[in-house]
């Protein structure tokens, strides 16, 4: 399983709202596109739909390291304080299209009656399509992984505090 990991990063930020007012799934699946775009210059578009099995799905489009990604995040865990989404994401590179597995995990924990800690974890993994894609180009997985890590980590670090502020605004609007 360790060989399957591309990048795993986790960053945290403070939310100044009571945990009882936070509902991460509602925030995610009603997030206006403009607010998603405001959370990172890499964010192009976002919307919500349903997967063929009826589960909620968030569609996110972003450009990381010069490659456009279309993420089809299907809800696996949907609790007010925890949302886990799983995607077999399309990646459009200068040399063609492939797929990357992504788990996006968002969670909050109570610090005190008015404050929470938000943690944004992103885990990307090698799919069979990506392994074949890299192999056809003669790119060793370790080289690809080493190049992808700083891009993914910087993106997650940048968007985490902005997501936290957006969740905070959503929570405080709820009453």
Secondary-structure element order, N to C = EHHEEEEEEHH
Q: Give the distance, in angstroms, between the N- and C-terminal Cα atoms.
A: 44 Å
Instruction: Just name the CATH architecture.
Output: 2-Layer Sandwich
Q: Could you tell me the mean pLDDT?
A: 96
CATH class: Alpha Beta
What proportion of the residues is helical, as a percent range?
25-40%
Q: What structural category do the secondary elements indicate?
A: alpha+beta
How do the strands line up in the largest sheet? 1-7-6-5-4-3-2
What would the CATH topology be? Alpha-D-Glucose-1,6-Bisphosphate, Chain A, domain 4
Judging from the principal axes of the Cα atoms, what is the shape? Answer: elongated
Strand-residue fraction? over 45%
Q: Quick one: how many beta strands?
A: 7
Cα-based radius of gyration, to the nearest Å: 16 Å
- Tell me the name of the CATH homologous superfamily: START domain
Most strands sheet: 7 strands, antiparallel
What ranges have pLDDT less than 50 throughout 5 or more consecutive residues? Answer: none
Summarize the structure.
The chain is an alpha+beta fold. The chain contains four helices and seven strands. The model has no long low-confidence stretch (mean pLDDT 96).
């Amino acid at each position: 399983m360790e060989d399957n990991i591309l990048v795993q990063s986790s960053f945290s930020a403070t939310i100044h709202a009571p945990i009882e007012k936070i509902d991460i799934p509602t925030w995610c699946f009603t997030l206006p596109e403009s607010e998603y775009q405001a959370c990172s210059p890499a964010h192009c578009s976002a919307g919500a739909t349903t997967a063929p099995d009826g589960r909620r799905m968030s569609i996110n489009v972003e450009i990381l390291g010069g490659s456009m990604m279309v993420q089809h995040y299907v809800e696996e865990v949907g609790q007010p304080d925890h949302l886990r989404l799983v995607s077999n994401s399309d990646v459009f590179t200068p040399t063609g299209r492939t797929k990357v597995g992504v788990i996006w995990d968002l969670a909050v924990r109570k610090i005190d009656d008015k404050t929470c800690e938000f943690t944004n974890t992103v885990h990307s993994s090698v799919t069979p399509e990506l392994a074949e894609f890299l192999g056809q180009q003669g790119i060793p997985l370790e080289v690809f992984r080493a190049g992808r890590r700083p891009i993914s980590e910087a993106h997650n670090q940048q968007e985490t505090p902005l997501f936290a502020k957006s969740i905070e605004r959503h929570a405080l609007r709820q009453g």
